[in-house]
Design a protein that fits this description.
five-stranded antiparallel sheet; elongated; three-stranded antiparallel sheet; alpha+beta; 3 helices
């Protein structure tokens, strides 16, 4: 096991030598107006949030504060992959299931909550050299589970070092 030497004490004449001096946290909220069920690409908004933050290495966290949509990292090159995802969830959690009791907002209400619970309301993506470290075929998407159009907020938090 190797040990590193302790950090030198800051020199009051040279300013702070804190290792956290270049640490930054930024938050931006993006509004997404959906047209009903489907996936809505947020990749460019995520890239912009990282670029504007000046963070070189850290993490990007995307979070939606809704219970009937979710966030997914998904194939971005071939739209048929997202169509298959949509169809899979339609079959996995069908609307008009007779034993759902939570239907106050319509037949797609409870299925949308279950679909959200099976996916995620947040995604965390590493930032390396000032860019989200998504793979070549990956994009960040809001996954709307309701039939009707909705206005969704997605909070993008960028945390990391600027050096």
């Amino acid at each position: 096991m190797s040990r590193s030497a302790p950090a030198p004490a800051p020199d009051p004449d040279k300013g702070s030598a804190s290792p956290f001096a270049a640490f930054r946290v930024t938050h931006t909220t993006h509004t997404v107006r959906t047209q009903g069920k489907g996936t809505y690409d947020l990749t460019s908004q995520a890239e912009d949030a990282v670029r504007v933050s000046d963070v070189r290495n850290g993490t990007l966290t995307a979070f939606t504060r809704h219970t009937s949509c979710s966030l997914v990292v998904m194939e971005n090159a071939d739209p048929s992959a997202r169509r298959d995802l949509h169809e899979f969830f339609e079959r996995l959690v069908p609307e008009d299931t007779p034993w759902f009791s939570h239907t106050c907002e319509g037949p797609d209400d409870m299925p949308s909550h279950i679909r959200m619970a099976l996916t995620r309301t947040s995604e965390t993506i590493p930032i390396i050299n000032g860019r989200p470290a998504l793979g070549t075929w990956q994009g960040l998407y809001l996954f709307e589970h309701r039939r009707a159009p909705h206005t969704r907020d997605v909070i993008l938090t960028v945390t990391g070092t600027t050096q």
